[in-house]
Amino acid sequence: MCRRYGNRMILINSEPADYERFHVTSYYSKATWFRLKLADYLHPDVKRVLYLDCDTIVVSDIGELLDLDMENCPVAAVNDTPWQIQYAAEHIGIDNPDGAGKYFNAGMMLIDVDAYRSYYVFERAGQILADSRYQCDFLDQDVLNIIFRDNWKELPCKWNLLNGFLKKEYMSDARWPDMMAGIKDRAIIYYSA
User: Fold this and answer.
1) In what order do the strands lie in the sheet with 48-52?
2) pLDDT tens-digit profile of 14-42?
């Protein structure tokens, strides 16, 4: 398929020893942590990556997303559900003074690789997890939100249409129009558990 579209796929084996210090559960394996080291695995010529969890599907052209002006942000993603935003405020200290709340879902991230590298994500993850101020129940997603707290570009819901968005009671009145537009113009659907 890659050849058909003029692309190629390279499989990269990670070193399990790199992830020994990271917490795993019956639900989250060491593979959960791989995206933290993503930039280290890529060739220096790679400038942008679209990260997708394995339970996502692309249903329309993503060219617009790949050409997006990221406004000097290392990550572009979709703001999560109000429930997750409330969780972030209570457990990892991410809260906006205006109450709007910003906590991205890491199942789909557009990544500026050079900017991502400059944050030393993998190294900082260990420090964050050792810090008792943070209760990181959502592991790598929490870590990424702490690291990029004030420096990520919010994308419309159509780029990561979460199944949790489909319940109106989860949507604040301000975000419901974006959600409805996301359903109509969906590009990436994420079937998160």
Assistant:
1) 48-52, 108-112, 75-78, 152-155
2) 777 777 777 777 777 777 778 888 888 88
Rounded to 5 degrees, φ, ψ at 155 are -105, 155
Kindly state the greatest CA–CA separation across the chain.
50
| Contact assessment for residue 22 and residue 129, using Cβ atoms and an 8 Å cutoff | yes
H helix intervals, 33-120: 38-41, 63-66, 82-91, 113-118
Look at the alpha carbons of 101, 107, 113, 118 in this order and tell me if their dihedral is positive or negative: positive
Q: Which two tokens stand for residue 122?
A: 């993998």
37 alpha-carbon distance from chain centroid: 13
Q: How far apart are CA 143 and CA 166, in angstroms?
A: 26
Helices (H) and strands (E) in the chain, counts: 7, 7
Contact (Cβ atoms closer than 8 angstroms) between residue 131 and residue 97? no
Query: Is the confidence at residue 98, as pLDDT, over 60?
Result: no
Q: What is the DSSP secondary structure assignment for residue 118, as one 8-state letter?
A: H
> What gap in Å lies between CA 52 and CA 59, rounded to an integer?
13
Dihedral sign (CA 129, 137, 139, 160):
negative
